[in-house]
């Protein structure tokens, strides 16, 4: 049977995908532009025998997530920028405690209270750590509603496989976009974690903690975590290349900006300019490899496009490592670039007409 | 041969890190004895908070998780919601519960979360070296109130009374462990709190007045006299909420 296509908003599709991935516990706190997600969970969770709980704050929500995850169930929380700042405490503890979970950031304009327009200005915060201590988490950056669904399913599997939180990084535009989408079949929640706290019936007690007072012990834990992060880098790096084969200039963008940049690439191609798009799907681990290959192949110009002041551009420069020129175009504060703006940047860089 | 006294099964056979004369040990033992008596060892998850008792997980033979400072009630909520068949308790200090974690404890109580919170109130931050806590008595000298706690630092407030007001709390009491009679009473109160959870009646909490000879800079005997005198005078003992009888009798819905 063909999978059914339905029209759905990004935020709601994300919720449905989580449920289909076997997530039965959702802890949330309202913030625009992700509020449809908790609302969807509030409606849907009781139908599948799950639990939706509106916490008193993002701090409480993320720590409820910590508890549920320690009890061995698939659980999720979501927020938007200012709320995500508050979640960083719990994320650091969950990484230290090796607890799997999925955390969603549907970004909006900042800093501070900012506004409720789409933005990508939390790249540093989510991708480079944000919370305290040496840590990493796989961060998936979908650019369509369908991909939001697919990557949400993947996020839960990766979280369990590595016993580490996994982030879904989107923005207000993706969350609010309504598109046709198809869902994979419902998966039953698994209950087989051999480290979970379930009451010490017939076995020795289990303890989950991020505390290790002895520095040698804590260094050992950190080395174990670092080895895990290295395995993630080796196995979980994902990206997409679009019209890059003969490209002379490659636009680098993720999420919503990538979607807009794709239209700009098509427009440039139709005027005869050899332009491609490189789209990181995991923004951590950052896909250095494909970019390095393009630079080796002779691409002399990269144009990084973001809805921020150029946070990912640092990773692009590292990947290219002086072999090519890296320019940046970005809009700030909740402004979304248009394909026309990006095209005109491309034309400027390639010496064509603006 | 009949064993007349020994370690509770729920207590790990290890030496604790607590200072000599500190009553954290007494309170741990009470909790462990009750876990044994109510046959809860194989269905308990304890939540350790940040403070001197952060290592509580080393002392109980039950599953345990360690929560960020103040967030134990939220962590406990997550566990209990995920596995309602578990018996879940938090063990927190006054700094953990009444300062950084006020929001989490009030809302867990308001929601009637079926967990039990135990607060060890020694009116001071023990672990970080004796700073003022929200329950520090007026005039008391601490590392951060070197001239004594004054008006400008605010006045100590009463956690048990506060939580008793929450619609979701089923049992809330304050006791102390500075003499034998009250150790027995504390055990009785914590037993009621545990039973409130086991009967699904809602949130339960026992605030236990304890000492901190080290940071108060006194002997254990003097420390207990301070509990019996100044502390009890400001923090009245008693049960501030107890719906167990009415609810179990079916009086309330
Ligand atoms: C977020 C955060 N802030 C501060 C601390 C430092 N800290 C550790 S223990 C503690 C106070 C604990 O006091 P209390 O809860 O009264 O417990 P006690 O040590 O007296 O038993 C503080 C502030 C921390 N670990 N985490
Ligand atoms: S510092 Fe105080 S509360 Fe902490 S173990 Fe020592 S006596 Fe007990």
From TrEMBL, chain A:
User: What InterPro entries is this protein classified in?
Assistant: 2-oxoacid_oxidoreductase, PFOR_II, Pyrv_Fd/Flavodoxin_OxRdtase_N, THDP-binding, Transketo_C/PFOR_II
Keywords, A to Z? Answer: Oxidoreductase
- Asked whether the UniProt record includes Oxidoreductase among its keywords, one would answer yes
Q: Which domain of life is it from?
A: Bacteria
What GO molecular function annotations does the UniProt record carry, in alphabetical order? 2-oxoglutarate synthase activity
EC numbers listed for it are 1.2.7.11, 1.2.7.3
Which is one Pfam family of this protein? POR_N
Q: Does the keyword Oxidoreductase apply?
A: yes
Q: Which residues form the Pyruvate flavodoxin/ferredoxin oxidoreductase pyrimidine binding domain?
A: 16-187
Gene3D superfamilies xrefs: 3.40.50.920, 3.40.50.970
- Pyruvate:ferredoxin oxidoreductase core domain sequence ranges: 247-342
Kindly give the SUPFAM superfamilies that the UniProt entry links to this protein.
Thiamin diphosphate-binding fold (THDP-binding), TK C-terminal domain-like
Kindly give the NCBIfam families that the UniProt entry links to this protein: PRK07119.1
Q: Which named protein is this?
A: 2-oxoglutarate ferredoxin oxidoreductase subunit alpha
Q: What species does this protein belong to?
A: Symbiobacterium terraclitae
Which lineage do the record's taxonomy fields give for this organism?
A: Bacteria, Bacillati, Bacillota, Clostridia, Eubacteriales
Automatic annotation (TrEMBL), chain B:
**Keyword annotations:** Oxidoreductase
* Domain Thiamine pyrophosphate enzyme TPP-binding, chain residue ranges per copy: 58-207
Q: Does this entry carry the keyword Oxidoreductase? A: yes
Q: Which domain of life is it from?
A: Bacteria
Instruction: Give the residues annotated as coiled coil.
Output: none
List the molecular function annotations (GO) for this entry: 2-oxoglutarate synthase activity
* Top class in the EC scheme: oxidoreductase
Q: Does the keyword Transferase apply?
A: no
* EC identifiers of the protein: 1.2.7.11, 1.2.7.3
InterPro entries according to UniProt: 2-oxoacid:Fd_oxidoreductase, THDP-binding, TPP_enzyme_TPP-bd
The entry's protein name is: 2-oxoglutarate ferredoxin oxidoreductase subunit beta
What species is given as this protein's source? Symbiobacterium terraclitae
């Amino acid at each position: 049977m063909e999978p059914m296509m339905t029209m759905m908003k990004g935020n709601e599709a994300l919720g449905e995908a989580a449920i289909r991935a076997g997530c039965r516990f959702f802890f949330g706190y309202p913030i625009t532009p992700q509020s449809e997600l908790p609302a969807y969970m509030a409606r849907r969770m009781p139908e599948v025998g799950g639990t939706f709980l509106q916490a008193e704050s993002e701090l409480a929500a993320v720590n409820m997530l910590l508890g549920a995850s320690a009890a061995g169930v698939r659980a999720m929380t979501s927020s938007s920028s200012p709320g995500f700042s508050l979640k960083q405490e719990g994320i650091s503890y969950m990484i230290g405690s090796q607890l799997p979970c999925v955390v969603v950031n549907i970004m909006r304009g900042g800093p501070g209270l900012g506004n409720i327009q789409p933005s990508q200005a939390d790249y540093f915060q989510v991708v480079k750590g944000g919370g305290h201590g040496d840590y990493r988490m796989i961060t998936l950056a979908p650019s369509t509603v369908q991909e939001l669904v697919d990557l949400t399913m993947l996020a839960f599997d990766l979280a369990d496989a590595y016993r580490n939180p996994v982030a879904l990084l989107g923005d207000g535009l993706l969350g609010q976009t309504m598109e046709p989408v198809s869902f994979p079949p419902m998966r039953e929640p698994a209950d087989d974690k051999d480290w979970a706290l379930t009451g010490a019936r017939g076995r020795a007690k289990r303890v989950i903690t991020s505390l290790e007072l002895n520095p040698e012990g804590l260094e050992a834990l950190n080395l174990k975590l670092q080895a895990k992060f290295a395995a993630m880098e080796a196995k979980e790096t994902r990206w997409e290349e679009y019209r890059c084969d003969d490209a002379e200039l490659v636009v680098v963008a993720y999420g919503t900006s990538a979607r807009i940049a794709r239209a700009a690439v098509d427009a440039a191609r139709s005027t005869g300019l050899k332009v491609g798009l490189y789209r990181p799907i995991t923004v951590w681990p950052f896909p250095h490899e494909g970019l390095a290959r393009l630079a080796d192949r002779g691409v002399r110009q990269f144009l990084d496009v973001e809805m921020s002041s150029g946070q990912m551009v640092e990773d692009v420069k590292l990947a290219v490592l002086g072999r090519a020129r890296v320019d940046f175009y970005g809009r700030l504060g909740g402004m979304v670039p248009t394909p026309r703006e990006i095209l005109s940047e491309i034309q400027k860089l390639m010496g064509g007409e603006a | 041969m009949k064993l007349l006294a020994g370690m509770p099964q729920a207590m790990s056979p290890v030496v604790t890190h607590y200072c000599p004369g500190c009553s954290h040990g007494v309170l741990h033992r009470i909790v462990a004895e009750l876990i044994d008596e109510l046959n809860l060892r194989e269905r308990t998850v304890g939540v350790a908070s940040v403070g001197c008792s952060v290592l509580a997980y080393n002392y109980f033979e039950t599953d345990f998780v360690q929560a960020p400072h103040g967030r134990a009630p939220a962590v406990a909520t997550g566990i209990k919601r995920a596995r309602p068949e578990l018996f879940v308790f938090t063990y927190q200090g006054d700094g953990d519960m009444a300062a950084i974690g006020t929001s989490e404890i009030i809302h867990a109580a308001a929601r009637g979360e079926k967990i039990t919170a135990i607060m060890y109130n020694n009116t001071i931050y023990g672990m970080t070296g004796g700073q003022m806590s929200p329950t520090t008595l007026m005039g008391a000298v601490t590392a951060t109130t070197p001239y004594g706690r004054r008006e400008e630092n605010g006045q100590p407030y009463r956690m048990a009374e506060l939580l008793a007001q929450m619609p979701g709390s089923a049992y809330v009491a304050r006791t102390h462990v500075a003499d034998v009679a009250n150790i027995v009473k504390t055990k009785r109160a914590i037993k009621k709190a545990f039973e409130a959870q086991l009967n699904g009646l809602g949130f339960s909490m026992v605030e236990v007045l304890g000492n901190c000879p080290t940071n108060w800079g006194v002997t254990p005997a003097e420390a207990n006299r301070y509990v019996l005198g100044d502390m009890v005078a400001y923090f009245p003992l008693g049960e501030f909420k107890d719906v167990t009888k009415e609810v179990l009798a079916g009086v309330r819905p």
